[in-house]
Every structure is written in C-alpha cells, then in structure tokens.
Amino acid sequence: MPYDPHAVELRFQQGWEEAGVATVAEDPSRTPFYCLEMFMYPSGKIHMGHVRNYTIGDVVARYQRMRGKNVLHPMGFDAFGLPAENAAIKGGAHPKAWTDANIATMKGQLRRMGFLYDWTREVRTCEPRYYRWNQWFFLKMFERGLCYRAKRSVNWCPDCATVLANEQVEDGTCWRCHNAVTVKEMEQWFLRITDYAQELLDDLDALGQWPPEVAAMQRNWIGRSEGAFVDFAVEGQAEPIRVFTTRIDTIYGATFLVLAPEHPAARRVTLQDRRPAVETFQARVRAQSTHDRSTSKEKEGVFTGAFAINPFSGERIPIYLANFVLMDYGTGAIMSVPAHDQRDFEFAKAYGLPIRVVVQSGGLESDRLAEAAPADGVLESSGPYTGLPNREAMAVMGAFAKERGFGEPTVTYRIKDWGISRQRYWGTPIPIVHCPVCGTVPVPEDQLPVLLPQDVAFTGKGESPLATHEGFVKAACPACGREARRETDTMDTFVDSSWYFFRYCSPREESAPFEGEAVRYWTPVDFYIGGIEHATMHLIYCRFFTMVLRDLGLVPFGEPVKRLMCQGMVIKDGAKMSKSLGNLVEPDDMIVRYGADAVRLNMLFLSPPWDQLDWKDSGAEGAYRFLNRVYALVEDLAEDLKGPVQEPRGEVPLLRRKTHQTIAKVTAELDHRLKINTAIAGLMELVNAAQGYLASYRKTPQERYVLREAVESLVAMLSPFSPHIADALWQMLGHDGFLVDGPWPSSQAAIAKEDEITLAVQVNGKVRGQITVPADAGAEEVLAAAKANEKVAGHLEGKQIVKEMVVPGKIVTLVVR
RNA sequence: GCCGAAGUGGCGGAACUGGCAGACGCAGCGGACUCAAAAUCCGCCGUGGGCAACCACUUGGGGGUUCGAGUCCCCCCUUCGGCACCA
C-alpha cells in the first residue's frame, strides 16, 4: 500500500487523543521538563510563522519525552485585544463570539499539525477565571506601591483611540495599525517596572541560555546611564532647576541651560516679555506628532529671558527651551556644553551662544571647533579642577556636589514605568472605584472578579464602550458605600501574557492564581520558543512579573525562563509573507498536498531554527519524497525483519557503524545545539546507507540484525519530526504503543568508532595524497605511511623535510624545502 | 550615529574546538523502466585548463597570524534586525 499521509495522520491524531497521551500530571519520581511556546493570539487562522514556532516546540517536547522526562507542553490563547474589538466595530460579531470562533478554527489547525498539547490545561485570558487574577495581581501591586496612577504625557493612537506603552510605538507609529502616534496628557495607571530596572539588567548576565542578541536588546532598552544630578539656582527665584548630566566634568564649559518644552518650570522661569515667544514655541512643539518630533533633527529653541547660576563657577548662563531636550528622560533639563556635546554644539551655533573648551584632548581651541569634542582629556579653564584627567574629575566633582548639597551622583534608566491603561473594552477591567469622597479605592479581593459586561455598544468613537455602560460604571464605593464611578480603562494585554505560563501548571485552581506545589514542580520554564519581536516587550514584562511574584512570596525564583530560542522569520521569495504581497502560503493547502509530517519536516530541514527561512513548496515536495522512501523501505522489509536475528561479532558492519554514528549525532543535536536541520540530514544519510545495504542483503540472522537495528533506530528518531508516519511504521515493525513514550535508541561508542581512518597528507599546505591507517595508529606509523604514499613521495623527491606533524584523526602535514 | 547578527555552488544550507570547503536536500543534465507520461531507480553536477591521471583558482573585498584560515586578528564593503536628539 502506498504512503497515504492523510489516512496515517488522522488515524494517529485520533489514536493519541483517545489514549490521552498528551495529558500529564506532576510526578515527583520523574524529572520534569517544561517546554513552552508563546501562546497564540486568536487572529483567525494560523500562518507559517506559527507552524514553524510550534513545530520546533513539538520536536523538543516529544524528544524530551522519549528520553523519559515528564514533559509539560501546553497551549492557550492570548484572547483579549484590539482586533476582536475592531471586528465588532466594523459590524461583525461580538468580540467574545469572534474570539471563540477563531480559537475553534485555530485549535483544529494545530491538531491537524500533530502538535501534542495537553489541552486539559488550555488557558484563555479572556475568561473571568483567568483575568480575575490579573486584577488580583493589580491589587497586590497597589498594596505594595508598585502600581500607581499619574497624569502623564502618553503615546496616543488616535486611530485605535487608546494609549500605547513605549514598547508599542514603532518608529513613531502604532504597532498595531501603523498610524501616527501623538502625545496626550492623561491619567494613567502605571506599574513600577523601573524599581526592577537594575535587577532586570543584572540578571541578563546570568541568562546564559538566552540568545545574546535578546540580552543586548534588553540591555539597550533598559538603558542604564551613570551620571549626576546638579541643581542650578535660577536668578531671582528660590526654586533651582535640577539637571541630569553624564559629564559633570565639563560643567565649567556649560554656557547655557535647556529645558524640555513641556518642563513644569518653564512657565515659572519665563520673564514677562518673553512669554508670547515661549508660548508660541511650546504650542508649535506640542502640535507635532511623535514621529515628526523624533525625526526632525533641526535644533530649535527659545530664550526664556531667565538666567541660571552655575554652582561650580558662579557663572550666569541663559535658560532656553529647546525641542531636542526630552521631558521623559533624566530630569527634562540639561546643562549645555557645546564644546563637548554635538547637540549642544549645533544649538549654540544656531543661536550664537558661546563655546568653551574645558576638556583638552589635543589641540582643541574654543573658537575653532568644527564639531563637538566628546573625547576624554585633561581639564582646563575649570577652576580648582584644572589639570585633572576628566575621568577623575567626574568622581571628585560628583562628590563635591553632594557634599555641598546641590547635587549627587546618580543612575538613570531609559526604561519607563509601564503604562497599562487602555481605553478599550476587550481587556481586563482595572479593579478600582473612584469615589467623590474617598478618592481612588481598590475593589476588595473578595469582590473579584470585576466582570466585563457583555452588553455593550461598539461605536468605534471616543471613549471605551465601558465608559458609556451605565450598569458597569455605577458602583458603590467599597469604603463608604456612596455612589461612585468604576474605573473604565482596561489593562494592556501584555499583563495577561506576563504570567500565563504559571497558570498552565494548575489551570483550574480557583483560590489562587496558581497552586504552589505544581508551580514548584514545573517551573521555571526549561525551554521557551517564540518570536524575537517580543524581546523588549513580553520578554521584559514576564521577567518583571516573575520578580514581583517572587517578592510576593509566590514563586521561589526571579527568572521565569532557563533557555530561550527565537525562531527566525518565515519568508517567501525573499520577502516577508503577507496578504498584501500576495505571497502568503497557507499551511492548510500544504497539508492537503503533502501531509502535516512533510510540512513539519520541510520547515525543520530548510534552515536552522533561529535563521530566516525561505519557504519553498519544492522543499515540501522533497520532504514528502523522503517520507515516501522511508515508508516504502519499511513496508518492504517489515515482514522479513520479524525473522531470526543474531548480533554480529567481530568486525563491525558499515551500516551498523553508520546507525550508531547517526544516533550519536541526532541525540547530541537535540540535547544541545538544536540545529535540527543537520539532525534530519543525518537521518537522510542513514536511509541512503540502509538502501545501499539492501544490494548485498542475504537475509542471514546477523545481516538482519544490522538492518533491523538501522530501521528501528531510524523510525524512532524520525518520530519527533514526523510523528504520525513514525508511529505507523513502528507498529508495522510489530511494536505496540506510541513512540512518544520511547524508546529513544542508544548509541554504543565502541560500535560508532571507526577502526580505520583516512587521513589527508599535506605537503607545504596542499593536500597531495590520502592514506588509510588504523584508527589507533601512532604518529610514527602514520608518518611512515604518509611518506610511503606514492603521490606524496613525488612531492618530497629532492627536497628536505624541515617539519612534520600528525594531528590525530585529522591530518598529516609535511613542510619541505 | 550606536549596538547586534550575517555574507559559502544556480538555490536552501553543511563544515561543533583552526585540519581534505561544498554533507544533506532542491533545481538542472544524462540514462533505465514505460506505447507515452507521472512516479520510481541509477549516474553527473563550484569555476577554469587538460584526452587523461592531474593542475590551478574558489567561502563579500584587502591585509595579517599559522605548517595550515570559511573558522582567529586588523581595515573596508553589503544586507538584515534593534535603538536612536537618552544629556
């Protein structure tokens, strides 16, 4: 019977399900292994990116399980979010119905791919029994001061009518709809991720099994910067202006002070006659979109008429507002040292402000600078610090500022507190009530969850649908009982995904977010696979959340993921797959043509998991062809292999050696490097070798032993990659059960080892001949053989050997003159 | 601008610690089977030279270290990703 992928795949998908092989439970007698893939946003249908991500995860989960580990391999849905709501606004179904329908479709597709998930542990973040714990964590953080409300300038997407976190703004546009983002002042809820900035940074060094580029991106994002605060008195005013600088050593070269246009002190310091100009400038900056503001590099500003006093030199310097100073970094105010900072230099040139060199790094003259000179050097024109190397001066001057009380050394971070308020419906309600008397009051724990109402109107205009839902908004104040107003913002969906992997451990737990025993058994996650696009979003948030959970005493560690892998993008014909480019490959079509096993194998074989993958239908055909060959091979041999066997003694047959070498190679690949493409190449080589063996197969018990060992090892090792066909062939060979429970073949070093090796012989760096020697031959013997080689001898004739060496197992090299 | 990753046949890729570059597959070419086609099987397949055995060249470019470099060091080019007026 020819290989029929559909019949085979459906048969075993049903078989696995009926046998419940995917369902796992804690078992202290076995080693746990938590294999996790980023859960799914239920957008409608799965795409090739999902297929790749989940195939890699399924390989790891199945392999670890074949090795005897107790493997937790769950899947769930990141089910809150804007697209569901946008679909409702466009006149579609209710977000809940839309989401449920998509989940049903996508689960079917995952099942058809043969991914072995413990669906009894499925988590959907839009269910009250899940999101109530988001609310619970919110309250816990609120109690600890890790959660606060503040009026801030926030990123606002007019199109989505909601706030965005910094991480969700890409190049000045919304990460979802890619329309321009603007700035808006709003009351927002924030989580104090900055409290953990240092720990988030420090731990990166210990995450040895994370891709270094992800660690680098996070380092960059956290943006630690050492410097100092310095207070500059404002002439005629009591309140000073605090600046942040990383170059306090250059303070004698500060020739003006600059505030961000939105700086709260701007109004206070501006003199009466400068008001109109200052306000015009502020209005112009405010009108700019985030994108325009960050892309226009033109330095523009306005003089406030006020002067500040340099606390080191006593010098009187003008105060400006300028567009290049950002309110949300440092203190929103800087001292400008045009000689040593390029931005300050450009501004000074544009506004005719003085430029003074104070760090001499070689031949610098204040009135001849063509650009700023940020290099290290020796201080000049710097009062008592003149002559000091600038690095030393930094420390001394910082300490001096602290001693005199007008500043101090400090550290700032680029990362900001995480704004989680979203003016949308389809998310977790924030458990807060605003009371006219008591103010902001948290909803008591025993009143959770604050349920998201179902009956809302989706207009797509202005505020969240919740704000106009009378029944939801009206609430009694939990403190005094008076009529109050419920908070109508919902939480950023990244809150949902920050802890879902804990919930999988005990998904039906009703009295806590998760059950301690289960979490201690399974977590931290051993292996996590997902897209690198989450490097500075989800992958920072979930680390932060885990640290908070640790500080709440809920988990015994601060890092949720031991090993992280980011799979590469799936592209087609050199371009990202997308509907608009018309190069979308539908997994369903591929399955119809070649079956899930071939689609999986092709995905895995085309390139290493972390590299970009250029999808080729012809590759799937190749994979399909390979599976056909394996199927035909096993089918032809199945009956014969049940005949008598006897382990061969003495010289190891070539096929047997190849079998054991392949087992060693594939095992090593799946244990450590996960360069799955080369593991599959190894299996292909083994098939070629087995087929070659058939030419001289005489069906002796010894030969049959060798062939059976090869074929059974092959089928078992194929199982993580193409599990359905592997199970079918396994049963054809007379075994019961499913390969997901092993056995994984084992390699014997003595059999895998070559007893004769072929070495190349180099003369003056060029390969001139080949010699075959016993694997354990000594250097003397090898050299003798090399010199005796006819071709080598020709190159030695009439020459003198000046150097000879043998690299065991690798090469022989002779240098002649 | 800063940080990071990468550049190998017609294509995807292999070469794990410096040791015969091109495993494995795709495409292509030739052959077998077939009335024919598909499928399958066998062979060839980096470039140049030679009837040949063989020789020379070849891992983005240039230099270097080494008996020996795709791999290590320096400079440069290109592509991709991240950050970007961060004081």
Radius of gyration: 34 Å
CATH architecture of the largest domain: 3-Layer(aba) Sandwich
How big a fraction of the residues is strand? 15-25%
Give the biggest sheet: 7 strands, mixed
Overall geometry comes to globular
How would you name the CATH homologous superfamily of the largest domain?
Answer: HUPs
* Quaternary structure classification: single chain
> How many strand elements?
32
Question: Can you walk through the features of this model?
Answer:
With 817 residues, the protein is of the alpha+beta class. The chain folds into five domains: 5-133 and 494-576, HUPs (Rossmann fold), CATH 3.40.50.620; 134-192 and 417-493, no CATH class; 225-355 and 392-412, Alpha-Beta Complex (Isoleucyl-tRNA Synthetase, domain 2); 609-752, Orthogonal Bundle (Isoleucyl-tRNA Synthetase, Domain 1); 756-816, Ubiquitin-like (UB roll), CATH 3.10.20.590. Helices cover 38% and strands 19% of the residues. Helix 1 (5-19) packs across helix 24, helix 3 (82-89) packs across helix 4 (95-112) and helix 21 runs parallel beside helix 23 (701-718). The mean pLDDT is 91. It binds one RNA strand of 87 nucleotides through helix 7, strand 9, strand 13, helix 11 and helix 20.
